[in-house]
Design brief:
about 230 residues, alpha/beta, Spore Coat Polysaccharide Biosynthesis Protein SpsA, Chain A, 7 helices, 7 strands, Nucleotide-diphossugar_trans, Trfase_1_rSAM/seldom-assoc, Glycosyltransferase
């Protein structure tokens, strides 16, 4: 009897935090007000969760700092984030999960099944080509990390939120002897110009519609203040 594929055993985790004004996406301010930045972050998170709900997985975990909305909880097991830096919190996920693991964040609402298709295809068969999959971000970080055999030592100590985070993380995987597949590069939403670009990549989505509403609101505000 053949063993279940990695996809059939897959845990998909979304690491995120409560979208409170002044607590998330502070680099969106200015031009946005803190409440607008928080609402945009919530839109990004909710859209990411909707995408993940549609992906094949054995379980879906929301690794959360704060209290998620009732809508965001649907289809997920909510687990409080651990303490420490981001590397320690990601490593804790590896310790908590048995079997193949995919970690994504809340900052790439343009994420869709197509972006993950190389991973899903590779891990759907009886034998997989890659031990890990890496999704680089345009800012030098990464938006996705998938490990067939999660090991906290593969992440712990990697400097996060720096221009070479992705390079160091990828080197760590390769130094461990893993074969690593590469997913498409995506842009994180850090600044409002990022949000505008990302919105253009997912037209008609809740996120894109909210960005457009913000553009109109700011244009109207500038007109009034002239």
């Amino acid at each position: 009897m053949s063993q279940p594929s990695r996809v059939n055993q897959l845990s998909i985790t979304v690491i995120a935090k409560e979208c409170l004004p002044g607590n998330v996406k502070t680099r969106l301010t200015p031009p946005l007000e803190p409440a607008q930045g928080a609402a945009l972050a919530q839109s990004s998170l909710s859209q990411t969760l909707r995408t993940v709900r549609k992906l094949p997985a054995q379980q879906r975990l929301l690794i959360f700092d704060g209290t998620p909305t009732s809508v965001d909880r649907e289809g997920f097991t909510v687990v409080p984030q651990g303490s420490g830096g981001l590397d320690a919190r990601l490593a804790a996920i590896c310790s908590a999960v048995t079997g193949p693991l995919l970690i994504v964040g809340m900052d790439t609402p343009q994420l869709d099944a197509a972006a993950l298709q190389p991973l899903l295809s590779d891990w759907s068969g009886d034998s997989a080509e890659y031990d890990a999959w890496f999704g680089p971000a345009d800012d030098g970080g990464f938006w996705a990390l998938a490990l067939a055999t999660p090991d906290p030592e593969l992440i712990l100590g990697v400097p996060m939120s720096s221009a070479d985070t992705g390079r160091v993380q990828l080197a760590r995987l390769e130094a461990a002897g893993l074969t690593v597949g590469t997913l498409p590069a995506l842009r994180d939403v850090d600044y409002f110009n990022d949000a505008q670009y990302v919105a253009s990549q997912c037209p008609g989505s809740e996120f894109a519609n909210y960005v457009e509403a913000l553009n109109v609101e700011m244009a109207n505000s500038q007109g009034v203040n002239r």
